[in-house]
Every structure is written in C-alpha cells, then in structure tokens.
Amino acid sequence: MLLLTFLGGLALLLLGADLLVRGASRLALALGLTPIVVGLTVVSIGTSAPELAISVGGALAGTPDLALGNIVGSNIANVLLILGLVALVTPLVVHRQLVWLDVPLMIGASLLVFAMALDGRIARWEGGVLVAAAIAYILFLVGMARRHPEQVPEDPQLGEVDADTEARPGTLRQLLLMAAGLALLVAGARLLVQAATAIAGALGLSDLVIGLTVVAIGTSLPEIATSLLSSLRGQRDLAVGNIVGSNIFNLLLVLGGTALVAGDGIPVAPTALRFDLPVMTAVAVACLPIFFVGHCIRRWEGALFVGYYVAYTAYLLMAASSHASLDDFRLVMQAVVMPLTLVTLSVVTWRHVRSRAALPPNTPDGSP
C-alpha cells in the first residue's frame, strides 16, 4: 500500500511539473516578464506550496521540529541535491541577475533566519518581518521586469503574442494550466510525504531528522521535477531561478507564515542551531562563487553538490543512530573534505577573476 501511494504521488508530481513548466514559460511572454522573473516568483511560490502545507500543518499539530526541519532540509536539498542532479544531466547557465541580486538575497535571508533563531525561538513578530520581506521582494522583481521589458527574449517556441487579440485569453489559459500543475504538485507531494514519513517513523527516526531528510526531499520533489523539465526544455533560467527563488520563499514566506500561525512562534532545537542552520547558510554562501565563475554550473560542480548532500544525509542518519564511526566521519569532513573544497573554489574563482581582468575593455564574456 505504501509503495502504491509513493508511485501515485510520483506520477502526479511529474504530470504537475510538466503542466507548470509549459504554463510558466508561455506566461513569461504573454505578461512581458522574463523567464527568470517567472521562475523566481510564480514557479518558486508554487513549488514551495508543499513546504508551506507541511510546515504549517506541523506547527498546528504540535510538531514544530518537523516544520523547521522541513524548511531547513528543503533549502539544503534544493541546492545540493536538485541543482547537483540537474547540472549532472546538463550544465546550467546562470543569469547575471541571480549573481548580483537573488543569491545575495538568499544568503541574507539565511543569515537573518539564523540570527533570529539564536535565542532558541523564531517569534511571531519575526515571522511577520519575514513575510513582509517576501512581499517586498515580489513587488521589486515584478517592478524591475516592467521597467526593463526589452529583456524579454524572443522565443520561437512560444511565438508572437498580439497585445490586442491574443494576450488576454492566452494569459488566462496559461494561468489555468499553471494552477492545474500546482494542484497536482501539491497532491503528489502530500502522497509521497505520507508514505515516506510512515516508513521513516517505523524506523524510529526523530521528528527533526524526518523533517530534514524524508519530508524535505518529498516536499522538494516539485522543484526536482520542475527544474529538470525546465532544463530539458531549454528554459535554463527558469530551472535555476526556480531553485533560488524557492529557497528565498521557503525562508521568508513559508517560515514566516508558519511562525505567524504558530501560537508561540517556532522553537529551534539546539541540534538545528548548532549544525543544520549553519549548513543551510554555508550552502547558500557556496552558491555565489560557483554561480559567479563563468555564470554556469558545470557537471563537476553538480557532482560536488550531490556528494555533499550524500555526506550530509549520512551524517544525520549516523548521528540519529549514535553510530560508532560518527566522530571519525565528522573529523574527515571538517579536516579534509571541506578545506579541499574551499581551496578548489577559491582557486577557480581567482583564475576566473584574473582571466576577466585580462580581457580588453568592452569585451563580452558570453555570460547571460
């Protein structure tokens, strides 16, 4: 029965993602918005709907560890697992806007949430601040897109839209298509999470670990499906923008909204404060040099992301079971793997900066 539930949820997710990508890519042209803005707003909010449903439900049901773990775990999985897997399938082009605006905002939101959690609780008023920041971010993106309509690309797959005759019905049609896709995504995610949570609970895992792993991956499945299909359809701005935007909205809208509806805010477990929140923040910071170098996520960088996610999940499971090798595993990660990765990224970034500095003035670098 659990297997059938899992497979049914997966089928709904894939169908919903296909409808969402089709609708969003055409909506960009119909509304005069760039695909990157649609990915950062409409698609990101839509694919964050499962996180919102699970986190609010967890807070109201008295399992705040599950709610917080779902959000933190989803942000870690979005970057390390999803971007890594999609980049392994096809290298991803990163829009300039992500480097100078959206990734720094993701880092800032991560640091803000980390600072709010230092006292062991994210209060309701702090949730209100996060929600207000989410609204301001949406208004800023839409306003910026409206001020620069020349950035909307010509897409031969979408065709020309006549403003007087076709834009309005076309817009409504794509909105209905996206709404159907979002509904299927949420329904599929709920079925998958129910099946996976039942299995994890039978194994004796804590609410925090379940939220950080099983539920986080389950609620991130819409992002996986949407980003992969977007990339395969050539909408690479939509693929990367969806992940970055989803992480921003998970912190500002989902966590903020959950803190608002929870009676006493969201308590933060000491384990999450010591380990998971710093990891989430570090993952956000790591995006900046990788996105900056060549404005592209290469296959080897995708493999690095996936490897780190496997190591992170292994650490959580070893810690939950008090495995005898936990201390050795932690030592290897802290003393060998992480320093080597830091050195590698620093050298690659330094070489890229030097190569760009050596270019003649006004020489295009080929990045979007």
Write a structural description.
With about 375 residues, this protein is mainly alpha-helical. The protein has a domain at about 50-150 and about 205-325: NCX, central ion-binding region (A middle domain of Talin 1, Up-down Bundle), CATH 1.20.1420.30. The protein is built from twelve helices and four strands. It has helices at about 1-30, 35-45, 50-60, 65-90, 95-115, 125-145, 165-200, 205-230, 235-260, 270-290, 300-320, 325-355; strands at about 90-95, 120, 265, 295. The strands form two sheets. A two-stranded antiparallel sheet has the order 1-4. A two-stranded antiparallel sheet has the order 2-3. Helix 1 (about 1-30) packs across helix 8 (about 205-230) and helix 4 (about 65-90) runs parallel beside helix 10 (about 270-290). The N and C termini lie far apart (about 45 Å). Residues about 150-170 have low confidence and may be disordered.
